[in-house]
Design goal:
Elements lengths: L12 E7 L3 H17 L4 E7 L6 H8 L2 E4 L5 H11 L4 E5 L10 H9 L4 E5 L12 H19 L10 E5 H6 L9 H11 L4 E5 L11
Parallel strand pairs: 1-2, 1-4, 2-3, 5-7
Antiparallel strand pairs: 4-6, 5-6
Helix pairs in contact: 1-2
Length: about 220
């Protein structure tokens, strides 16, 4: 996989990552994502949307092979929406750049899209959660309760609505009206999928306990 793909080249998969001061992990995340695409023979790209990092994260991401877009307006939602807008792939995977997600798992989400799904969420509760990766109260109460509330209020039906890894087709993404600037971005994403009646599924993904080693 080339770090830079010409505008005219066809891209099947874009893996995008919002980023704010993740120097210790973003390089490894980018390398892991590019490696997964390369091993699968997928023509793809990695896009990092930097939200004003002051620790050199953009330089680390570029060195690892990512295309970096700058997002001056602070907020996870602003970074997430900018990352999605910058993607050029037919399928787009979005994941946090803090090292807590295994980007090799992105291929499982992409395969669901290839099979006809519009939108796929990586479900942490159904995957392997490493020791200390998610507090017991968060795992047994916080995530299930917040997901249940979203399901009740927005009519969604997922099991991990606030997961930091999800995937969507570009066609479906263009139909969404995402406006959130902050952490409510994840909830809005699932609510929009419900509103548009997208074909949705979940894939079990692991949750890591510590950030990846720096590149």
């Amino acid at each position: 996989i080339q770090a830079s793909i010409s505008p005219g080249d066809e891209v099947e998969v874009s893996i995008v990552m919002p980023c704010l001061n993740e120097r210790e992990a973003v390089g490894a995340c980018v390398g892991e994502a590019l490696g997964a695409l390369r091993e699968a023979g997928i023509r793809g790209e990695v896009v990092v949307a930097d939200n004003g990092s002051s620790d050199g994260s953009p330089e680390v991401a570029r060195h690892a092979g990512a295309r970096v877009v700058q997002v001056p307006a602070r907020g996870y939602g602003n970074a997430g929406r900018s990352a999605l807008s910058a993607a050029r792939g037919r399928y787009v995977v979005i994941g946090d750049s803090d090292g807590s997600y295994d980007f090799r798992e992105a291929l499982a989400l992409v395969n669901e899209l290839r099979s006809g799904r519009d939108y796929v969420i990586g479900n942490r509760l159904k995957g392997h959660i490493e020791k200390d990766a998610m507090p017991w109260l968060h795992r047994r109460v916080g995530v299930p309760v917040l997901t249940a509330l979203l399901n009740l209020t927005a009519g969604t039906s997922g099991g991990d609505a606030h997961s930091g890894m999800r995937a969507i087709t570009t066609e479906a993404l263009r139909r969404m009206s995402l406006r959130s600037s902050g952490m409510e971005f994840a909830s809005e994403f699932s609510a929009e999928a419900r509103r548009l009646k997208l074909s949705t599924s979940e894939v079990p993904i692991p949750k890591a306990s510590v950030p990846k080693a720096p590149c």
